């Protein structure tokens, strides 16, 4: 069977259609493709690393007691529990081993004023007595810190060296026995939790126990007629502190 040739008109139409298809494919290949935009970069992980300064205020309370004894009045025990304001400032440095979450090592020094470490007064029967141990007007600590961070939360323990001082009782000049120096040395230990409000500002709540040693002390006892001075003893210088603080990190 003989194939008849395609008429010229139909051949031209077919050739034009094929050319349009080929041209369209080439044009489509040249068109820009709409790709999805790349995701935004992740913000850097928060880190506690850096120096900081801050202020704090709270409540301090005596946990120990004072015990006096002499031949005339026997043994007198003055219980602890007296409390009052404590406040001051701190400076420190943190180093976070792994940004985001992980161990944080640091060191902190603080200096505090107290409103609770005054001399103790009392009575022996109906006879008043006046403590002549030095008061504790201020104290400071130099401590290490070890904590674990959960992003902007930091839970830590702390401990180190403590020192303090104050003024002598107004009765000390008339007291015939030797009294200790007003400067005291000891240790401090505690724990706390801190939260970073911004990249630079954080707030914390902290509890500390500070022990400045047992102080040699005495009792000035006034009898009914003539002042008489009796007694020697030891006064516990340990106390607890609960305080809140604000830090600014550089």
Automatic annotation (TrEMBL):
Gene3D superfamilies: 2.40.160.20. Its main location: membrane. GO terms for cellular component: cell outer membrane. Residues 1-28 form the signal peptide. PANTHER family: BLL7405 PROTEIN. It comes from Methylorubrum thiocyanatum. It comes from the Bacteria. This is Outer membrane immunogenic protein.
